[in-house]
Amino acid sequence: MLTVTTPAGIAQAASLKVVAPFTREEAEAIIERLYQKLTGLTRIYACYFEFAYFSGLRPGEQMALRWEEVGFKTRSVHVCRIVVKGKVEGEDQELPACAAQ
Hints:
By secondary structure, this protein is α+β, with helices and mostly antiparallel strands. The chain has one domain. It has helices at residues 24-37, 44-55, 59-64, and strands at 3-5, 11-13, 70-71, 76-78, 81-84, 87-90. Strand 5 (81-84) and strand 6 (87-90) form a beta hairpin.
């Protein structure tokens, strides 16, 4: 389970709000196919879509994430900014990170 902390400081389990255009089986099949077909540097797209599906983040939230906001040990991310119309909006948008995990 991935925990997402919003700008208001409210921790939410990503699985509380389920918006699933694909079933879990369909998503896993798509992601597996991406890992099979993509090679070299393009394989990063398989990782992107896997994270996108299982985290439940909006695309703009995911694009605005910084490595410092990803807690690998805690399996959590801190969402504090978003990309809107190509521009970053949110806390400390000019700083290296808005919250270290």
